[in-house]
Design goal:
With 154 residues, the chain is an alpha/beta fold. The chain is built from five helices and five strands. Strand 3, helix 4 and strand 4 form a beta-alpha-beta unit. The longest helix is centred in the C-terminal third of the chain and has 17 residues. Bound molecules: ligand CA2. The site of ligand CA2 has 16 residues, from loops.
């Protein structure tokens, strides 16, 4: 019998303070919690026959470790690096080293906010960037990765 190829999960990685979603600043980030987003992401991936590995850390090094892990353990990455987006060369290097497609996501639109949020160290390493669409952005990113994966396995 022919062996079925293993499909790795989509890593959905979240950076500092995103664990506070739904608790503070609902006017900017909405009322949905990160756990809610995790459940919605899992359901969206399942519709595509995929799984997600959904994680959050307040620590830059943990995110670097997970991005390195994704090189051999993920079929794609959705990254909301939080404020590290605007500061982290280490995350830029880890994103550049990815061997799978990366979609950068932000709940808010950083370009419509303070000037220090206008630059992203992630964007140059990303296949695409989605911002300002709230939780929907995560789901659109999963849809996009599913389409890319389908295209690459044709
Ligand atoms: O809009 C986004 O998704 C951001 O990545 C969120 C980051 C911010 O630094 C980026 O510029 C844009 C902040 C995440 C902190 O989230 C909180 C949620 C609730 C209460 C306080 C912070």
């Amino acid at each position: 019998m022919a062996k079925k190829a293993k499909i790795f999960p989509i890593y959905v990685l979240n950076g500092p303070n995103l664990n506070l979603l739904g608790e503070r600043e609902p006017e900017i980030y909405g009322r949905t919690t990160l756990a809610d987003i995790g459940r919605m992401a899992a359901a969206c991936a399942e519709d595509h026959g995929l799984n997600v590995e959904f994680r959050q850390s307040n620590h830059e090094g943990a995110l670097v470790d997970w991005l390195q892990e994704a090189r051999s353990g993920a079929c794609g990455v959705v990254l909301n690096a939080g404020a590290l987006t605007h500061t982290s060369v280490a995350l830029y290097d880890a994103c550049k080293a990815l061997t799978v497609p990366l979609i950068e996501v932000h709940l808010s639109n950083p370009h419509a906010r303070e000037p220090f949020r206008h630059h992203s160290f992630i964007s140059p390493a990303a296949k695409g960037v989605i911002c300002g669409l709230g939780v929907q952005g995560y789901l659109l990113a999963i849809d996009a990765l599913a389409a890319l994966l389908k295209e690459s396995t044709k």
